[in-house]
Records
---
Amino acid sequence: MPTTQATPAASGPGSPETGVFTHRQILTILSGLVLGMFLAALDQTIVSTAVRTIADDLQGYSVLAWVTTAYLVTSTITTPLYGKLSDLHGRKPFFMLAITIFVVGSMLCGIATSMYELAAFRAVQGVGAGGLMSMALAIIGDIVPPRERARYQGYFLAVFATASVLGPVLGGVLAGQPSLLGVTGWRWVFYLNVPLGVLALLVVWRVLNLPVHHREAKVDWWGATLLSVGVVPLLVVAEQGRTWGWSSPAALCCYVVGVLGVAAFVLAEVRMGDEALIPLRFFRNRLFSLCIAVSVIAGAGMFGGISLIPQYLQVVKGSSPTLAGYQVLPMVGAMMLASIVSGQLISRTGRYKIFPLVGTALMSAGMFALHLVRADTPLWLTMTMMATFGLGLGCMMQPLTLAIQNAMPPRDMGVSTSAATFFRQIGATLGVAVFLSLLFSQLTPATSAALTTASTDPGFRSVVQAAAQGADPAQAHLAQGMAAGDPAVAGAALVDTSFIQRLDPVLAEPFKVGFSAAMDHVFLAVSALMIVGFVLVWFVKEVPLRTMSGLAAQQAERDAAAAAPQSGSSTA
């Protein structure tokens, strides 16, 4: 018999004890959730804008994928654990733990002295991030019925929109500062999380008071361990395969360990049954399985696109980090508009399947259009393509999570929500690793081809000869390499791209053309992936949305279970 620890309140409508909350009570709880979500949302956007400056300063552009992948790996692995533990022991302590770890990781990132150190500290930060988004979404599922959730979606949209607008701008401003209060500007990208995190902790501690019904169950530590053993090697080889060689001994070792780890994880989950980290009975639900598959694809496409677009703007268009932050605003605005419209329509009609269909189609169209972008494409046209991608993202964000929460039992709210977040993060991690690896594998040959084409132009050759004798030693050294046909010149951007903006425009053009051509392959790959997502969404069956919150539904189940024995004894 589970023991119950609930917040003191009288039973009745508008009482947390019954799982029914008034509008005011929901807003009070939301004030704590939005701060935690703001940390996660701001971090994703602020770092993506500043990361090129960070990589150049720490001399490790080719190691860039590790910084992103390390964060995504740890946030992915810990997400299901947060969901399971919070289902058993309540959301509040684990939400606060996630915020604390995130703040500590942010402080460590701020003192990093190399890209490898930064990657390690981002991994710590990711352990906290794994609980921020999933816990907030699970709590919303606990207190707001699916049919009414769009009523409160505006508050979350305001958070995401604010983070999406402020993140790139703040990332650009801070990364563009040589020093701020005696500290290198880009380090404030991470230090900014500290006061925000402390504020979030205080607010959550004060307002997040939900009834807690402890359930006696084993924690699936073996499942968590085996999941790490299976997932990490596969993600590592996805990032390092281009360097090692996809059939090298190190890559083969990762394949073997990863496959064995995943197989052992599945066996462990079968043995644990309902107490598993991710119960396999979930996958017998066809809607859950299809939505999870689409979530993986959407995660790969979303993070692949968001992480690469600012780099295109900075490297090819020569935008500063701050300006690049402003230039992605059309995508952000379109995402916000689509989210608001789709949320309101879902609330009024109860229909949600159409929105992932439209979303995957628009994301694919936007990426295909970006695939056609060249170094000399007008910026307004590029922004239009980004806006198309943003519209697709806005249609995809809410409906998939809503469908999963609505399809699964309310008592599994934490596990089902964290499972959805987990698989979306799996897609994001693989997407970023694979797409960045694809970019880097194409960058050198694309730049080499652009240099070869440029060398046939007499005007380009004359500029190279003049630069080789010029007063700028760095430009002279590069021009001498161009004149000599040194193949290492084409790969210079793998280490540091900042030199491109300091070159004579004529000398810089082949590098910009090469970078743009390399990104074309990535955008085309994302577009093809989203077509697969579009096809899968067609097979999703639309289930009517419930009108009870997760906590209210669980309370109703407990009341029914308690009434059953009494009914039986009365009959006897």
---
Amino acid sequence: MQSVTFKIRAAIIGAGAGTVALILAGLAGPRMFGREQTIAYVLLFAILCGILSWASARRSIAAIAPSLDRVTARLRAAAHGDLQTPVVAQLRRDLPDVALAMDSLFSQVRSNLENIHVLAMFDPVTGLPNRMSFCRQVEQLLAEKGGDDPAALFFLDLDGFKAINDTLGHAAGDQLLARVAGRLRDIMMAQVGAGMGEAVVGRLAGDEFTLFFPAMPNRAAAERIARAIQFAFGERFQLDDQSLDIGVSIGVAYYPEHGNTLTALLRAADIAMYRAKNDGRGRFEIFSNALALEEAGKADMERDLRTALQRGEFLLQFQPQVDVGQDRAIVAEALVRWAHPERDVVLPGTFVPAAEENGVIVDLGDWIMNQVCETATRWARQGLDQRLAINISTRELSQLDFFDRLRASMERHGTPATAIELEITESLAMEMDARLIEQLRSLQGIGVRITIDDFGTGYSNLTRLRDLPIDRVKIDRSLVRDIVTSAEARTICSAIIALLQGLGLDVVIEGVESQGQLDILRVTGCTVFQGFHLAYPANELSYLARFGGGYEPVALEV
């Protein structure tokens, strides 16, 4: 087909050359010859030029036509993935520039494809296989295993990595991850050299790493590897001019005992790792039937909590914060309870930690938020001058739209901002980022009060405390428990109260359970208290009967 095309091109070139020769001869002929002679000479000259031009063009084109056909064929092969076959020698001889350009093009495409493969299969920070690559390799090893020969999967999570990332920056965090990857490679190679067979190490995500050993002779061998990992992390990591300590929590799952698929092994090892982290970090845990049962219990709890939300089994009780100087309640803290159909009323300490872990706390928090806003609106319209306080969890604040949902609930119910108080824990207050601080400051600006709860149970930075948008601080019950019998406890509590009041913050003492505690605390200059000595949590009707000044709950008119 290409040859036919080239012959047509040669004919066109010849015809064009003859036409040009005819025109030129026609212009010049009459001056040199008679009319009849001019026509004859012109035609003869045009035909001769056309034939010579056609022959010359056909010869030149015919000489490179096979090479051009080979160029077309080679490019077609490259389009179908053949980037390795070299350009033929004839093409290099006939069209050297084209051959050189094709070599350069194929080399560049091969290099780009290799880079794409590396980016798709390997983590750019550590150079380890990424999640997809690790999973592919392990699944291949599992498919190749014969029978039930044991294997082991190790799931690692760095302890304290977030703090390093936040304080030293992401560049330092990436350097640390690269150092960690290096130590894990060394451990893997040492174990392979000891006869553990081909192993795979990878970075799943963030500060999570995994190792898979397809030949694990027994449980003792897995424990030795886990201890080797811990020993390797016992040596400090050197980053430029800084020396850092970082621990690791390890979960171990066995094949086929804990699962015969990679998905099952990853889940089992992940559960074991979280148990190791929750039990103190810097340790390893092997998956067990007890952990499996516990995890199943968590799944049942999550299902029951979601069912309870759908059935409306949750209710609110209110406990007052009493200003003994004015002899009246100034704040009612809203406390959630679960009216379980098969048990007594369930207190939050039983189900809230589970709700925070499985994420149900977000939906439960939305329900509490709506109930509190609706109640606060009714109380405000009745003229009851008391704020309603809501406890906000870390999980709720981690939701980017939390503040939008809070404002929407207040707007929907027409809730005055001055009727709402948000309580956050001391540890959460110390860890809040700039976005959260700005959002709280915005709420504070429209009248919402912000309180730190459980003060004294965490680690507070006084400079940061001064700069936070905080109105009140609730001193935890652990600081006042022994003040009647311990002079040291009285000294510590008095110093903390004086310090907070010196920062211009209102102070609330919670956990007051006796008149003796109340009398001692009043001497410190504190007048607002909360605890069983003053009142137990009660439903709205009972609360208003005692602390509502004669007001009774009345439904809002819609």
---
Amino acid sequence: MAAPKKGRRPAGGQSRPGRALALILIAMVALTGGMFWSGHTTPRLGIDLAGGTSITLKAKAEPGQESAVNETNMNTAVGIIERRVNGLGVSEAEVQTQGRENIIVNIPKGTNEKQAREQVGTTAQLYFRPVLAVAAAEQPAPDKSATGSPTPTPTASGATAGKGKTDTSPTATATSSPSTQGRAVTEALKAPSPTPTATSSTTPKSTESPKADTPADPATAALQQKFATLNCLDPKQRTAAGDGVKPTDTTVACGQNGAGQWEKYILGPAEVDGKDVDDAKGVFDQQRGMWIVTMDFTSGGAKKFQKITGKLSQQQAPQNQFAIVLDGEVVSAPSVNQTLSASAEISGSFNQQSAQDLGNILSYGALPLTFDTQSVDTVTAALGGEQLQAGLIAGAIGLGLVIIYLVVYYRGLSMIAILSLGVSALLTYVIMALLGPAIGFALNLPAVCGAIVAIGITADSFIVYFERIRDEIREGRTMRPAVERAWPRARRTILVSDFVSFLAAAVLFVVTVGKVQGFAFTLGLTTLLDVVVVFLFTKPVMTLLARTKFFGNGHKLSGLDPKSLGVQPPLRRTRRQPVSAAAGPADTKEA
């Protein structure tokens, strides 16, 4: 019986290429199917390639706060606006300052472009203010106190006396002069605990004492006049009601009730503001069948909210309500029956879009300044299209040169490299198309440059592997053992090289903004795909082709011809047959 052969290394540790190829094939089919199923068969383009909208905002300082328009607040506003538009899924948006008081916002063309235009300049100043008094928003009547005509007056319950009606019962709340309405506002401002009625109706109208009509201090008198003349049915008055009001001021505001009717409020100083909100989102309340906005407070905000709701829960209506005021308008005024702390909600006439938009705005905070929209311009993609065409031509030329080099130098091996480049290109395209609707990724010119640079990175990985195989053949090994022995050495080099490229892309993505991030993102994505393609496609295909006669026997056109690599046969796998049973050890020694 022949003695067992020693010293021969098995073709060894050879992987199962069929499994790896099946895995990447399944991934390619699944991703491609998902792309066609989603209906987004092309990548979403950035503003430089698809056009969009350019908005110019001008910072407006409040009276006496001109110094607020400074570099710090402008940079803060840029960051908040950028997070808002990206929160809407409008990535690749450009937000930057221009001069001392202008901000330019460039929004790519897309499904959320309209919403982004509406929200970029929204100040989103959020305050929780206690309600002191409330009245229905009626058209204010002319002052006819001289003729005794009655004027609508707010009550503690939020109702108003009927216009032109009188009531002689002890609980009547209508008055017949502005002075009585002024006393109602004064009592609402001063009373620590409201009573069911805002005014005393037991005082005979004909015998009111002069002391009762004594004017209040100038600030209270001004607030009384503002409340009495406020017409919440006029959009301009609703907007102007909160102009110049500080958080510590008592003010008036307008808002809609659950029935969609406008009401006007007297509100106390703010107890909680938007900075105390940790997170907000629009959700659908299944029990009530309506959309609401839920808010979670920070630890400090929870303590403040607990304190104010504890006080309000002990009051009578309407002073047990707190108004949620957004940019000077009451969006909700819920009643408080118990102490709350952890969270709150805003309810009203929301639909899905408005609830989610408000949650998005509140999540990213309020702008430190008020902005006026100076201009809204449409940006065309003509210039970007020309640059894209030039870039694609440059990329095609580069790819062609790479292919020519591979064919001339590696011959048959170039087929494997070209197939691998095709797989990498397909995966890159499909993933970019899917990332558009998924995370709002938009392909811009720098991103195209990143994809072109990735051609060289991917080709470099093939070259490293091919050269390792050639090194093994030069050492006298045949094709199949050379493929397997070259892989561990090439794998380490490929992983280190791709790690450095990915690290550079990650750092560039973190420290830059705007379009440069598109370049970094694409470079990082293609670097990861290079690892996937080399491990799951290039190596398995190389293993399968090494078993064919064309590559396994080192055909002169395979790129692995031992003669062209400077190796003289016989190779290390070849053994001499023993001449006789008495042959010496030298006869069985490897050549």
